């Protein structure tokens, strides 16, 4: 007992000694202080500067609002009003209520304390207490105020298709606005309050350098002074769209010029987009003999394009006509841009199972994600609104991942025709028509299918793929398939006579009748 | 999307007993209720469809902790030496995370996936759905699976299968 008391006394004395030796806390550096202006009053908070960015002491801010921040494993946990946000120093995303808080940069740890960008509070408070945060850099005030629930939230998307940059501002409610042209920039001025998704964002786009929000203004900084815009609005949901491109402006509503002559709009199959899979550094599968999928698909597609043009007298566009990288979204965007009536993506298959052989044809499966089903319902509801045909058409474009939905039946017919002809003419073992969530088919606003011609990983099929005779056989099969589909479709819509019935056969392969020596010149790829 | 990494690391840290300054327990397995449990893994069979393989694996009771272990077990490949690897051999499971809404995140990495995996759509479908089927079969709370690559949302693994959304399990790719 006496020994225990002695140990306690020594420990107490040691603690006092340590406290005496501890350095006096440094007075707060005004440069590292800011004002938290919350509904319950002002409070000084600690901020930190790193790499030109300002970070806020998360524990101080959340505590001032009645919550707490604690360590949680390698990260941190902020709690307020029974809402918990998790965040860490290696991610610019936090998680709250199954949702994300996006910050411009990851939080940092200073003296074992979490410091976060002010946008963290914006995201966290909106979800935990219907509060919002804004940072007044000039006054060094972090203002916490009731969220403006009446303000329309804005999302911004920037996408470039064939040199035209489409900036789409989607609002949760209609808002009046005007657009001001300034040197090197356009500013969209909303006349009612909006909730901006970010302060500033750079874009990897040929026409748009960055977008930034200042109050209720969105400033679109251009990459060059000669970039001009056409703007228009769409409803359901409310959107403001700016089409930006280099060169002289044209009147709003004027169709964008394409690099080739667009046929007169009329029902039927007039334009076909053929997509040679992969390209550039995206080589695709490689055969045991070294044949690359990207080369095999390009050679085949160039022959196919020539054959389709010659036989069907349709315009044919290749998504690539050389060994270049074309993003998957861009491939379907090209088809949409050309108002194509069919989209056919050509690939070579690969399998680890030895001896795999045969052709497969796919069309898109949308049931791969139940989130898509939810969005489909949203689309359907939105389409029932007062929007006119133009808005309805654009709505499809914006809901990219649902664009293919209404064409699935036609895509299925196209895929069936392709697979039957591949079976009939090439004699390749059928692996059937299948559905899969293939990225390249997602955004197509026309019947679309993906053909896996043969297994490049199979040495026998790799040899075949290299041969002119086999390529012509496949081209013949695909041309016949497209012709069959075209006739069938145009008959169903009443602009063509039904073709004489041809009984499907499984007889020996047909020898190709002709050889195309040189592909026709394509444009717009 | 890096939240997956952050949070799964946090969860693993909790499971590992490394948080809250607790001393490392000699009885860690007991604390985490680690038991050898049967798991069902999916590999590509000779019919070019996914086939089930059951394996006994020591797993903690907490699904969040068990998820990474099961995903890594899948990448080890089949116990049957005749069944080839679906994924490139340098593929790793970087992290996993299970959201309360039933979305499981599996963050894959490795040099081949990072540089661009050159394979066909069949093999990519087999790889993606081996993960989806394995996760949803062993973890009833996981209703769908979102695959990330190197801590970031990925468009595809090899140029075909759309990974920009969580995928539901599909019997299409599984041998009956």
- Could you report the average pLDDT of chain A, rounded to the nearest whole number? 78
Strand order of the largest sheet of chain A: 9-10-3-2-1-12-11
Proportion of residues in β-strands of chain A: 25-35%
Basic shape of chain B: globular
What gross morphology of chain A would you assign?
Answer: elongated
* Number of helical regions of chain B: 5
The strands making up the biggest β-sheet of chain B line up spatially as 3-4-5-6
Largest sheet of chain B: 4 strands, mixed
Give the proportion of residues in helices of chain B: 25-40%
Strand-pairing-aware structural class of chain A:
alpha+beta
Query: Which residues of chain A sit in consecutive blocks of at least 5 with pLDDT less than 50?
Result: 1-25, 248-264, 379-398, 502-525
Proportion of beta-strand residues of chain B: 15-25%
Radius of gyration of chain B: 16 Å
Number of helices of chain A: 11
> What is the CA-CA span between the terminal residues of chain A?
90 Å
Overall pLDDT confidence of chain B: 84
Q: What summary fits the major beta sheet of chain A? A: 7 strands, mixed
């Amino acid at each position: 007992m006496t020994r225990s008391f002695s140990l306690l006394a020594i420990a107490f004395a040691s603690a006092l000694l340590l406290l005496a030796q501890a350095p006096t806390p440094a007075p707060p550096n005004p440069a590292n202080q800011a004002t938290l202006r919350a509904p319950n009053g002002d409070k000084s908070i600690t901020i930190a500067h790193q790499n030109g960015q300002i970070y806020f002491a998360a524990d101080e801010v959340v505590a001032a609002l009645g919550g707490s921040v604690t360590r949680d494993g390698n990260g941190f946990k902020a709690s307020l009003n029974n809402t918990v946000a998790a965040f860490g120093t290696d991610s610019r995303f936090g998680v709250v209520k199954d949702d994300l808080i996006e910050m411009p940069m990851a939080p940092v740890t200073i003296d074992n304390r979490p410091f976060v960008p002010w946008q963290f509070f914006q995201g966290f408070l909106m979800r935990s207490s219907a509060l919002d945060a804004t940072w007044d850099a000039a006054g060094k005030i972090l203002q916490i105020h009731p969220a403006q629930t009446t303000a329309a939230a804005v999302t911004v998307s920037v996408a470039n298709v064939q040199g035209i940059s489409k900036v789409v501002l989607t609002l949760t409610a209609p808002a009046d606005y005007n657009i001001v042209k300034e040197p090197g920039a356009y500013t969209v001025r909303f006349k009612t309050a909006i909730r901006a998704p970010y302060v500033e964002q750079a874009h990897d786009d040929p026409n748009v350098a960055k977008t930034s929000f200042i109050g209720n203004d969105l400033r679109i900084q251009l990459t060059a002074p000669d970039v001009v815009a056409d703007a228009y609005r769409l409803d359901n949901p409310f959107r403001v769209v700016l089409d930006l491109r280099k060169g002289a402006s044209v009147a709003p509503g004027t169709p964008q010029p394409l690099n080739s002559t667009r046929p007169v709009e009329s029902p039927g199959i007039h334009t076909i987009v053929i997509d040679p899979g992969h390209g550039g550094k995206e080589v695709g599968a490689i055969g045991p003999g070294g044949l690359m999928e990207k080369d095999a698909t390009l050679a085949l597609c160039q022959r196919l394009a020539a054959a389709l043009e010659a036989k069907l007298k349709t315009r044919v566009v290749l998504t690539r006509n050389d060994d270049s990288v074309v993003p998957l979204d861009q491939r379907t965007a090209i088809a949409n841009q050309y108002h194509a009536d069919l989209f056919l993506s050509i690939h070579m298959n690969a399998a680890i199972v030895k001896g795999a052989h045969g052709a497969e044809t796919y069309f898109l499966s949308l049931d791969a994600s139940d989130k898509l089903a939810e969005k489909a319902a949203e689309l359907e509801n939105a389409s029932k609104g007062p929007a006119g045909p133009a808005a309805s058409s654009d709505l499809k474009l914006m809901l990219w991942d649902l664009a293919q939905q209404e064409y699935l039946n036609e895509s299925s017919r196209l895929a069936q025709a392709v697979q039957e002809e591949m079976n009939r003419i090439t004699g390749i073992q059928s692996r059937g028509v299948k559905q899969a969530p293939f990225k390249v088919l997602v955004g197509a606003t026309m019947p679309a299918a993906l053909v896996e011609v043969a297994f490049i990983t199979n040495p026998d099929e790799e040899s075949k793929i290299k041969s002119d005779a086999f390529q012509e056989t496949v081209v013949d099969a695909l041309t016949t398939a497209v012709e069959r589909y075209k006739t069938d479709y145009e008959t169903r819509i009443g602009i063509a006579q039904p073709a004489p019935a041809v009984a499907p056969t499984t007889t020996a392969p047909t020898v190709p009748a002709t050889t195309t020596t040189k592909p026709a010149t394509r444009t717009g790829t | 999307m890096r939240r997956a990494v952050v949070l799964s690391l946090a969860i693993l840290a909790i499971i590992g007993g490394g948080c809250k300054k607790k001393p490392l327990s000699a009885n860690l397995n007991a604390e985490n209720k680690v038991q050898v449990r049967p798991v069902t893994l999916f590999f590509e069979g000779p019919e070019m469809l996914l086939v089930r393989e059951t394996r006994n694996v020591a797993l903690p009771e907490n699904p969040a902790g068990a998820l990474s272990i099961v995903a890594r077990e899948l990448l080890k490949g089949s116990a049957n030496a005749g069944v080839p690897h679906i994924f490139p051999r340098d593929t790793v499971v970087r992290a996993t995370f299970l959201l309360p809404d039933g979305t499981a995140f599996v963050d894959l990495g490795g040099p081949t996936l990072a540089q661009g995996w050159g394979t066909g759509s069949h093999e990519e479908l087999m790889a993606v759905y081996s993960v989806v089927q394995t996760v949803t079969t062993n973890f009833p709370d996981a209703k769908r699976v979102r695959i990330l690559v190197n801590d970031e949302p990925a468009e595809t693994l090899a140029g075909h299968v759309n990974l920009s959304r969580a995928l539901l399990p599909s019997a299409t790719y599984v041998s009956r």
